[in-house]
Amino acid sequence: MAAATGVGTSLLGGSAAAGTVSPRMASPRQAPTAQFAIGMRQFNWSRGNRQLTTKIFYPASGAAGGNPIPNAPIANGVFPIAEWSHGMGCNSDCYSSQTHDLAAAGFICPAPSFSDNTNIGSVYNGNWSKDVSEVLTRTLALNTTAGDPFAGHIDTRAGVGVSGHSMGGMTTHGLLTAWPDNRIVAAVPVACVDMGNPAGLHAKVLFIHGDHDPTCDYNSARAAYAELPSPKAFLTHVGADHGQYLTPDYRYYAQTKNTFLDWFRWSLYGDTAARDRLQGDATSNGTSWQAALT
Fold first, then answer.
1. One short Pfam family name for this protein (predicted)?
2. Could you give the count of Cα atoms lying within 13 Å of 244 in the half-sphere of its Cβ?
3. Residue 276 is part of a domain; what is its CATH number?
4. Would you say residue 9 lies in a domain?
């Protein structure tokens, strides 16, 4: 694959309100079919007085499988960004199934550790969403940082993806609503609540939620889904609680994993075969699926 040729204004800019140009959609191509080894780099970034310690998980050279290798050489190729935001009381290591799955599938996954990880007020006032925008800007800039191992390996043309669970899911939805970032073309809010009116971003949005969630109201997420234009989809884990469907030992974890990854393959690689797999990915005795993909 040819290397991306720099980061344009549209991707280094911040919010939709800033008047930057929306990024182009992903050019149709097949996402990687083989699994990658996983590398990890840590960055001690900040936004004002807010610390943004961020681990970036990424496709690495070498044999697939095993734990992330610190500072491993990045694999050959150009890879899109799919960010992950953790939930309350957690950090970038709490959701290894999601961050590692993304990296192994061919995505660069920045995962910030929010400094006030129990303060839900910082989600409702937009600090976490603004933190994610800063992390996206810093990650994208590595593509043209002379001598950086990621230089030339980040797909800056197709826009970026964001995702997260609970407070991280609310943060993700906030980036589509009250604190929009128009670089986002794909989003997966998991166990979120409605954070406001859609900002009109051209993003493909997948919601994942358990319908017996005692923490983040399922009906609020359904309302958020109804407000958004297509393309969109909603994967419900029937009878599931706040997050058991994110753990590999859960009976219907495969439905979470495969739908989650294929959503990003479609949205960020332009892989239409991944789009066509989505209904099959989501279908089981323990799930329900609603989608408007056109």
1. PAF-AH_p_II
2. 15
3. 3.40.50.1820
4. no
Would you state the structure tokens that stand for residue 235, as one six-digit string? Answer: 């994967």
* 3-class secondary-structure state, position 18: helix
What gap in Å lies between CA 230 and CA 174, rounded to an integer?
Answer: 18
Place of tokens 């290591």: 93
pLDDT per position as a tens digit, 51-103: 999 999 999 999 999 999 999 999 999 999 999 999 999 999 999 999 999 99
- Could you give the number of structural domains in the chain? 1
**How far is Cα of residue 37 from the mean position of the Cα atoms in its chain?**
19
Cβ pair 75, 61 in contact under 8 A: yes
Q: How far is CA 134 from the centre of its chain?
A: 14
Does residue 29 lie within any of the structural domains?
no
**Cis before 214 (ω within 30):** no
Return the bridge partners of 235, or none: 208, 289
Q: Is residue 19 part of a domain?
A: no
How many other CB atoms are there within 10 angstroms of residue 77's CB atom?
Answer: 14
Cα-Cα end-to-end distance for the chain: 28
Residue pair 128/171 in contact (Cβ under 8 Å)? The answer is: yes
Q: How many CB atoms lie within 10 A of CB 24?
A: 12
- Residue 226, beta-bridge partner list: none
What pLDDT is recorded for position 29?
80
DSSP-derived secondary structure for 104-117: HTT-BEEEEEETTT
Tens digit of each residue's pLDDT (9 = 90 or more) over 229-264: 999 999 999 999 999 999 999 999 999 999 999 999
Residue 115 lies in domain: 37-292
Instruction: Pick left, alpha or beta for residue 50 (phi over 0 → left; psi -120 to 50 → alpha; otherwise beta).
Output: beta
Cα separation of 205 and 83, whole Å? 14
Closest by CA to 241, choosing from 190, 196, 281, is: 190
Whether 143 maps to a domain, the answer reads yes
Q: What is the pTM of this model?
A: 0.92
Each residue of 215-229: pLDDT tens digit?
999 999 999 999 999
